[in-house]
């Protein structure tokens, strides 16, 4: 695997500090590999292997560690006779009940540097999480970006990235997404099977095994609906009507619970609307995107008419990966795909597969032209010809994905 430098820009600032480093993200997004990279970094800094402890709670070796008491016993046994500072790396710590109490105690009683991974966004919202308040840095780990895919192919597979190869790799990325483990697989069948397995592990381990869901089939059909309608306006009323038409009686509250479960497992990400005139967040008509768009083509019958939504999904996750706060922009009766903020910078983005057709270009430009401010305005598409005009900048999506910013 490659060393994911975008994360180490953050990690390096906090190595050997009192802050607990907590990596969160969807299952199989590369959190474990990131921990191994941290181990390598520690060794490169001269830390003895005797002072570094990696513990995976998914390993058979540690499956008996289920609560804070057994975790305390394990750690005290491991580090009791170690001299100097210890470095503790805990993988999938949400499998240990009351883990926060143990981490807080270690933080208070020992000279230690602590790293944690978890596959549930509720990791830091529990009753005991307040013990860690102000003592941790949370780092969201995403599947590979397209830029990381290119780096992997170049450095690991020793492939020379020509323009043709780059486009071929993007077509594969468009279909299969960026789950790191898929890059080791060569056949489409194997990649589809791997994505199916990842989805099953998320559903059974992170959702059905964690929450009181009586109708598993109903939940699975709901998750299929979410994947099939990614990037489309969502309301609990519309999905309730859909399931009712499918001879399934369910409540709006159940639907809200289902979306929360998928969000908690980092399978989907919710984006809200902001009224750009009234400057307020709207409570209805939010959208959901997949944390990895590869699940769409693998688990849902392919619909290539949805390619613009897939590209929206890719751009949205890339913007999250780069640290932007993102909303859907509403201006009168029109919509702007993404209104983005970061460090005082604000911009507006429309995404379309192509704007080569004049009618499509006009449709994408009209909402941006209605904005009467000085913030940057963009149209992203797969078109290579620069169609910038009237102060609106056109960007090729591949060029955006390969860069660091706009």
From TrEMBL:
Residues 20-150 form the AAA domain. Residues 205-353 form the DUF4143 domain. InterPro entries: AAA_14, DUF4143, P-loop_NTPase. This is Predicted ATPase. The lineage of its organism: Archaea, Methanobacteriati, Methanobacteriota, Methanomada group, Methanobacteria.
